[in-house]
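Quick start: read one record
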Amino acid sequence: MRTAKVSESEPASLAHSEAPLLDAAQRQLDALRAAMDARLAELESALADPAGAASLPKLILDLSRLATSEAQAAARRACLQITSDHEAALLESDARHSAALEGARRESTDLRRALEQAQKRLESVETERHAALEAAREQARLVESERSSRADVDRAVARLERQLEDAQKTLLETQDAAATIERDRGDAAERLGLVQRQLEDTQQRLAREEDANRELTTERLRNRDQLGELELRLEELQAARTTLERELGDERAQARAYAAELERQLTDARKQLASTQDALDAARQEFAAVTNSARQAAAERTESDDRVARLQQQLEEAGRELVELQQQVASGHARAAELAAHHAEAQREIDERNADISRLHADVDQLHTAQQSQADALAEASAALAREADARAQDAAALRERLVQIERLEQQQAETREQLDVVSRQEADLRRQLEALSQQQASTRQDLDSSELERASLRQQLDAMVRERDEARQALDERGTALSEQQRVVAALEEQLASERAVTTDLREALSAPRTADEAEQQALALLRASVADAERRIEALLAAQGALQAGHDALARELHSERDRLAAIAAERDQLSAAREALERSHLALQSEHDALRGVLEQERTALAAATSARSEEAEHEARRSQLAAAEAEAAGNAELERLRADAAAVRSDLASLTQRLAALEAARVQAEDLAIDLQERVDVVERERDAFSLALDTERMTTTDLRAALARAEQAEADARADARPREETRASSRGAAPSSAAGDVELAELTFDEDAEPEKAITLDDSGWENIRMFTRYGFTSPIEIKVNSARATLVDLSVGGCGVRTTLSLKPGDSVRVTLPGDAGPLLCPGAVVWVGDESTAGRERTRRAGIQFTNADEAALEAFIIMRADLKS
């Protein structure tokens, strides 16, 4: 009975599509199974019919060949299914990696925008630095002007001290003159006490002026400290600028697009510098005018001092003449007429001198009145004449003191006006600083808004990265599930291959022609080549994915660095705001101290004016009223200035409160930015772990490709050996076929499986044990240096290793099936791996000790420890 010949052809290339191969393999498997069913039916018919006993050997032979072909077709079908599933998983993984790469590109675009915003913030910081520099220069100019005013105050204090010394000298002279006539100076003692009290008041005022001078010195030192702080802040800003310029050196190529904006800002800065220079010139002109006025005032004071000196000299001469008159009165009443004449003459001289004094100052009229009253008293009694003359002398001294006090009051009023002018200028400077702080606050709010937007975008990116990470984990889980399924399929295939080996061993003696096996081996070889090509393509895809992941990792690292730079900029801005707040507080304290000093000066002026008006004449009282009016106006102006300063202080407090809130907001933003940096670091770690996982997968694929190439080489070698062994059998079969009847060969036609090869036909490999053992279910790893191990306590060399077995080179006499104990060296301790010998090969050479190479399959080994051993010592075996 003839049977149909089953012939199916595969596509010309296995790499084009897996579906046609699967369909062809399935159709071939179905055809083989149908042929087997037909052969079984024929066998049953032959067994049932005794007449068909002659065809039983052929039926059994055909059935065995069909069983072998069906097993091989099933194995190929399973291998193609595994390869197709693996390719589908790789395509899905490539799609996910492409999506991850696209997300990384979008994230890189967002980071580039964040970098541009950081550059804009850097430009704003540069502008603020220029403004702070201008403010520091303005403060330095103010300090210089204040130093000049302090020098004027020091000179005025020196003049006051000299005047005090002169007054003390005059007082000593008066006391010496009063000692000679102590018995007749009852009234003079009271006036002397008044003069002493006035002197004490003057000393107290001098002490207060010294205190004010010390306060001014303290304020100057405080301003100097503030200037030092501003210089330190300027140095810090310059250092920060240097650091930022050094860090952004690589990014300057991208900053060229902002050259126009920088040029415009430079033009504005030049205009602002020109306006500042104009203000400086105006201040210099004002300072020159003040200097000229001070010089004129000094000249007038010098002239006044000369006139006062002349008056004092005249008063001293009058005093000496009065002493001579007192001596004449003591000589006796006989010379009363002569004394009266002398007194009249002295009175005329005193009147002339008093007239000169009244032309200098209105307060000298009181001396004229006192001298007139003394002249009337002298006409009544000569004894009272001496006392009245003494009283006139002391009144003249008191008038001199009052003149000095009036000059001091005028000088103090001038100094008060100057101080008020200084306070006004300081107030204007504070207002400018407050305006600058307001502008800085507005820019900082804009920076905070942009930071909020950046944080929102970064959070969105973080959510996208988290989703991508979850998807990657899900893909890895699915891939692990697919790999587990593949391992189970491979285990089933291994069992099926073991059963097929047993069937092949039983039928090998009955088969006379290995043609079908040769074709199957050629097909297996083609499959191995296709697997090698697929593995190489997967390696290339994994390399591309690794490059994309590396680029994403670099982008995330740059983003992390930019976030750290932004945090540093926020911290620097916070320090600047803290310094500005401290400067405002110091300015507020300085204004408060100046206000207290002005109030003390006003109180002193009121006290001095009250003391002066109580002892002056009507004209002096009129002058005192005018002085009181001026003092009231000055007090009103001082109160208005005080209210304005209080309002400014309230505004400063409100600004300080807003700055405190802004600092709190900046601190919160800094904390959020730090949290975001931590999240970014975690994302970078996740990407690095994924990159390492892909690198490990790439290494695994490389190792698998190496194993496939080695298996392909061994299969080709086995095919050559099989062809060499099969050639004599073919000749024997040809001769036997020639002797047999030609009709017997045509009774039964066997079912064959034929495949179209991609290129020239390759040599087939035999189905012997060594050929089947070359198909390994685990990845094998080689070693660059020899590793000494022990096999049954005997020394051996480790050739290769996997988690399922190893290859060794030893001098022991081993046989397949022997149970052995393999001991691997380890740092923590030896690793014991029990197993069984699978195959043994002889590698002995002449003249050397007999060496065998054996393959051992582990039966009970620690896979984790083996993987750790492989990671520490293994290398790809070429």
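The mean pLDDT is 71.
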